Description:
Layout: H1 3-7, H2 11-22, H3 25-41, H4 52-67, H5 82-88, H6 91-101, H7 107-114, H8 118-133, E1 139-143, H9 147-159, E2 163-168, H10 171-180, E3 185-189, H11 198-206, E4 213-217, E5 234-236, H12 241-254
Parallel strand pairs: 1-2, 1-3, 3-4, 4-5
Helix pairs in contact: 2-3, 3-4, 4-7, 6-8, 6-12, 7-8, 10-11
Amino acid sequence: MNHVEIFAPHLPYLRRFARALTGSQNSGDNYVRTALTALASGDAEMSDDLSPKNALFHMFLGIWNTTGAELEGWDAPDGDTPAERVHRLTPRSRQAFLLQALEGMSSDDIASIMQIGREDADALISQAEADIENELRTNVLIIEDEPIIAADIEGLVVELGHTVDNIAATQIEAVKAAQSNKPGLVLADVQLADGSSGIDAVADILESYDVPVIFITAFPERLLTGDKPEPAYLISKPFRPENVKAAISQALFFHKG
Length: 257
């Protein structure tokens, strides 16, 4: 098998990780392109000791740590823009946190990808969780037509210290809820109760408000096609609580509003 056949199944997830790491679709995709160019030219070293996915992520982080992350060395002022919040979060702890929470990797996987010990990986994750927990608190609009799923999401949102203003099951309900009380974050399903679209509901809301959005879908690869615009944050159904918490923290953390 060639490199394309080996690594292609893992590229949508690398792109998702890169976007969360950088806080930007364009920046994340640019770094993935840089990594793929290095891979195709033979300039990137791929570890034979790792699984294909872990080897791909290891290679990507090697490029990110050596050529990217201009913000990592930037002496930012103590403010509240995304760049300044990035600066306050330790770069390697952010990497470890995203590998675990968004990509579902074990501490052993993270340790091998980052070339550190397992205890060090756990310590980086704990540090990131504590740092993010101290970041922004906001009010949340949940767009979800399944009551049990909506209740689960609400519980996780409240556990993180946020408040839930409303739970909408249709596009019309969602838009009205946002007009009634501007959300600081939107969690949106794609297929809603009356056949309407969560994507359309979000588009309507974003015409009036600049808020971060997390889409929820059973088929995330359908929204990671390479077409633009794409959501920077996705949660796969059935979801893990860690995925929800990580996506919420990162969406708020990097939002430009």
